[in-house]
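Listing S7. Sequence submitted for prediction.
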Amino acid sequence: MNTSLRKTPRWDVLTCSVIVVACSILVYDALELPPGSFEPLGSGFMPRVLGLLVIGLSVLVALGALSKPAPEASELPPDLFAGMSMTTLTIAAATLFQSRAIDFGILMAAFIFAGVMALEHGRRAAILPAAITGITFGFGMKYVFTRIFVVDLPVWF
């Protein structure tokens, strides 16, 4: 692994904190969802479980980052493009999801595509795999939530 691309523990903790805040909002909003007509646990069960799972994993990552020694100055990344992009994308996706301005499948596909491209620093070679991954997982999540778990996702069109 290229040591110039290693993350700083401070940046890992900051990123995990943003994820915890976003998932806390998700869990809070899921508490207000009314019971569904098809499942006894209600529409908010899966978002609550997923939100709490992501919060728990983020806390574990943050604790792991705090236990690592800080990298030397020569090992710091030259720019923070990927981290700042992911933070901005997370906030934008949460805002669009809350405003119900775009379909869930389209939003998740775009979010995953943009996230992969941000993590790859915009490399051209990553465009096709990022697009395939985004479309597959974005619309796959919509299918799983609406057809298998029968979660009442809002319809925005």
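Caption to Listing S7: primary sequence and predicted structure tokens for the chain studied. The helical segments are 9-31, 45-67, 81-99, 104-119, 127-148. Residues 9 and 66 are 6 Å apart (CA to CA).
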